[in-house]
Design brief:
It contains 38 helices and no strands. The chain has helices spanning 2-8, 11-23, 27-42, 46-59, 64-77, 84-88, 91-94, 104-114, 118-125, 137-149, 153-166, 171-182, 189-201, 205-217, 224-240, 246-250, 258-273, 277-290, 295-310, 314-327, 334-347, 351-364, 371-385, 389-402, 407-419, 452-462, 469-474, 479-493, 497-505, 521-527, 533-542, 547-557, 578-588, 601-618, 623-632, 634-642, 649-655, 659-679.
Length: 682
């Protein structure tokens, strides 16, 4: 009932939960009143929310910190900040384990400010200014407001300046700027540039660009060098937003510092977009000569390698990737670039160089996501080029042990079956000593039923306060042992399959490196759920599809969120475009179809499985091709198929130039096997 109230907030839903509260005194009533208070907050009925939270506080004790804190929040929103004082007084002393302990002083200060009592706010905040909490953006902003309202604009401005420069990504940074304007004060151009630079580094290009362009109009105090750099960084933001031409880049100032490297990078990107490889390569060569340590050369080399990868020019791609690794061995791109150079050599038939690079990949980047690929393809070189079957077996076995549920472990087991009985044992290569062994955490399939935070999390679920379930569980000192399971089981208990799945994914547990039998089955079933299973199986069978493939595709596409609508306008479980849904509905003779029909799980499964069948048929039933087309579209797929000869389908998959599509195909095929292992009957 509480979940329905949070979703609909209808008169009937309010009445139902309030009736439940009256019929279930104690903790049940407390949870119900919290649910009603939460719904009032969502409806902006703050006075009623505050009253209802107070009723929750007197009904039970398990969630009394929530009743106090949320009640105080509602009172402040209702303009009755004085009512919050008692709820927040000695909050940490009364609720020492509460997740709100660190936030309560700020809320209390805001209650004082709401009641035009800045001195009261300062009495709360000043003693905590040097504590870890004092560095938080909401704390700093409340402190600045307290100084400002007390007439101490000097201290207020100092707090706002610090907040604006040191915490530029926070919501409070923008509020600090507004308050500075209200005091008829402004930030210096240097402070604004520092703020914009940090936005730029965080890839918030729209905001950074707006700030850079605003500074252009009043750059008082900036040196000429800083002003020129500002213009170039503003242009970089414009390029990210696709708002700049070659002519505009060429007109940017000539500089001699690292901003000159950025200008050359921008010109290289323009050349890439114009398909002018000669100009692009000449700019890269000049950057290597003039700016060999610049991060913009690093970016240009990786971008250039990717450009030539998509253009199916393996020699040029290899050149750019290899040069990046040589000049920037500690780059965040180094492992990826190194692997791509290895793979390009493999595709070119330079097997000895590919083998050297693959072994180097395993040893030099042992924690990288490319290691399973390197182990598998190095094994293939041992097997097919060097005819060293024993060493091939060693590589395949290392892969199946350390990456047991990975896509390449599946392929490695196939190769081991082929080589069974044909192999003379070989001493494992020293390279394999670098392969990291999986760490199996101490997981239990049982939850600590008497754990206070788990008890509170379940009550929060009953109250539909879903956003607090995760933080409450993670507040437990033993959460590392059971937290992921507890959170997922709570979500699963009220039908929130997507949230349960997301909880398991975000647990930090390396599930795919651990054998199925070393993790309690309950974890796997939450990670690989079966909602809508009868409809899924029926529609799969109707279209001659493997239901485990369909389940894996849905898990990848929507995480079983029937209401999912993507930024690309794909709808529902199987993420169908409205045009595809309409076409499939016509083929199926489905009357009354509209785009909203795609949010109906039964209809989405009916039309989605029909579409998947047609995609498979277009590509000869080959799942790897069909999945790549499902993700990237038919046109890119056919271009990749035509780009070269592939000895087998695995070579094709590794050669997919779009990282997202390559990982998508591999993940679905991997997950299909896990679904099959968990649920298929012998």
């Amino acid at each position: 009932m509480a979940q329905q109230l949070a979703a609909t907030r209808s008169v009937a839903a309010y009445s139902g939960v309030e009736s439940y509260a009256r019929a279930h005194p104690g903790e049940g009533a407390a949870a119900a009143y919290l649910a009603v208070g939460h719904a009032y907050v969502l409806d902006h009925r703050y006075s009623e929310a505050a009253d209802t939270f107070r009723r929750a506080g007197v009904s039970g004790t398990a969630l009394d910190d929530y009743a106090d804190y949320l009640g105080a929040q509602a009172s402040v929103e209702a303009g009755k900040g004085a009512d919050a004082y008692g709820m927040l007084d000695r909050f940490a002393e009364r609720h020492p384990e509460s997740i709100f302990k660190a936030n309560a002083p700020v809320l209390l200060a805001n209650a004082h400010l709401q009641q035009s009592d800045p001195q009261g706010a300062l009495r709360v905040l000043t003693p905590l200014s040097d504590s870890p909490q004092g560095s938080h953006a909401d704390f700093r902003y409340a402190l600045g407001r307290a100084y400002q309202m007390s007439g101490d604009t000097t201290h207020a401005a100092a707090v706002y300046r610090s907040l604006y420069v040191s915490l530029p990504l926070s919501m409070e940074a923008a509020q600090a700027r507004t308050q500075m304007q209200a005091m008829s004060m402004s930030f210096t151009a240097a402070e604004r540039k520092t703020h914009a630079d940090q936005l730029f580094n965080a890839k918030r290009y729209t905001e950074a660009g707006a700030e850079y362009h605003a500074i252009e109009k009043d750059a008082t105090g900036l040196s000429q060098a800083d002003h020129n750099a500002l213009l170039i960084y503003a242009a970089a933001c414009d390029m990210k937003m696709k708002h700049i031409s070659r002519r505009e880049v060429e007109k940017l100032p000539q500089t001699t510092d690292d901003s000159a490297a950025l200008k050359m990078y921008l010109l290289a990107e323009v050349s890439r977009n114009e398909h002018d490889e000669a100009a692009h390569d000449a700019l890269i060569a000049e950057m290597v000569e003039r700016f060999p340590t610049s991060r913009w050369l690093e970016e240009a080399l990786y971008s250039g390698g990717n450009m030539y990868l998509i253009k199916h020019d393996p020699k040029q791609a290899t050149f750019h990737y290899s040069l990046l690794v040589k000049m920037f061995p500690n780059s965040t791109y180094a492992a990826s670039a190194h692997w791509r150079a290895a793979w390009m050599n493999y595709r070119l038939g330079n097997y000895s160089e590919a083998a050297r690079l693959m072994d180097e990949q395993i040893q030099g980047y042992p924690a990288g996501i490319e290691v399973p690929s390197a182990l598998y393809w190095r094994g293939r070189i041992y097997e097919e080029q060097e005819r060293n079957f024993g060493q091939a077996v060693n590589y395949y076995r290392a892969l199946t042990v350390s990456y047991t549920n990975y896509y390449y472990a599946l392929l490695a087991r196939q190769r081991l079956n082929v080589l069974k009985g044909q192999t003379v044992a070989a001493i494992p290569s020293a390279v394999l000593g670098s392969v990291q062994k999986p760490v199996v955490p101490p997981l239990t399939g049982e939850l600590p039923e008497n754990e206070p935070h788990l008890i509170k999390a379940r009550l929060l679920a009953n109250a539909a306060l879903n956003e607090y379930i995760g933080p409450e569980i993670q507040a437990s000192p033993t959460a590392s042992q059971w937290g992921a399971l507890g959170q997922a089981e709570i979500y699963s208990s009220f039908g929130e399959t997507p949230r349960a799945l997301q909880s398991m994914k975000r647990s930090g547990i390396s599930f795919f490196a651990i054998p199925l039998d070393q993790v309690p089955t309950v974890y796997w079933k939450l990670l690989f759920p079966q909602p809508y299973w009868s409809d899924l199986v029926a529609n799969s069978q109707k279209n001659g599809l493997d239901p485990y493939l369909v389940a894996s595709l849905i898990r990848q596409e929507s995480e079983f969120n029937a209401g999912a609508i993507s930024p690309a306008n794909a709808w529902g479980l199987m993420q169908l475009l409205p045009s595809v849904g309409k076409s499939m509905a016509r083929k199926e003779g489905l009357k009354g179809f509209s785009t909203n029909s795609l949010l109906n799980p039964s209809i989405n499964l009916e039309l989605g499985t029909k579409n998947l069948r047609l995609v498979l048929d277009r590509f000869g039933g080959q799942a790897e091709y069909a999945l790549a087309a499902y993700n990237a579209g038919d046109v890119p797929l056919r271009a990749w198929m035509a780009a070269g000869s592939y000895r087998d389908i695995a070579e094709y998959v590794e050669s997919i130039p779009y990282t997202e599509t390559r990982e998508y195909v591999q993940a679905i095929l991997r997950n299909r096997e896990i679904y099959r292992a968990l649920y298929s009957t012998p």
